[in-house]
Amino acid sequence: MRFAGWGGVEAHRSQGGTNRVRCETYRHSADFRARFNAFSYIQPG
């Protein structure tokens, strides 16, 4: 299971250009770890 601030309520989501880049970076990192460790993850929400 992974948690990310981008899957929550609109009022609680990260804002700004830097955080939009972080969103993509975190997603890419989680996808890589899931492939590398041979497991699937479930994102709540």
Textual characterization of the structure:
The protein is mostly helical. Helix content is 44%, strand content 0%. It contains 1 helix and no strands. It has one helix at residues 17-36. It is flat and about 35 Å long. It starts with 16 loop residues before the first helix and ends in a 9-residue tail after the last helix. The mean pLDDT is 76.
- Quantity of strands, as a count: 0
Number of helices: 1
Largest sheet: none
Structural class: mainly alpha
Average residue-wise pLDDT: 76
Order of helices and strands: H
Indicate the overall shape.
Answer: flat
Helix content: 40-55%
Ends distance: 11 Å
Ranges where pLDDT stays below 50 over 5 or more residues in a row are: none
Percent of sequence in beta strands: under 5%
Could you say how many structural domains there are in total? 1
Integer-rounded radius of gyration: 12 Å
List the helices and strands and how they pair.
Layout: H1 17-36
Question: How is this structure best summarized?
Answer:
This is Catalase. It comes from Salinisphaera dokdonensis CL-ES53. With 45 residues, the chain is mainly alpha-helical.
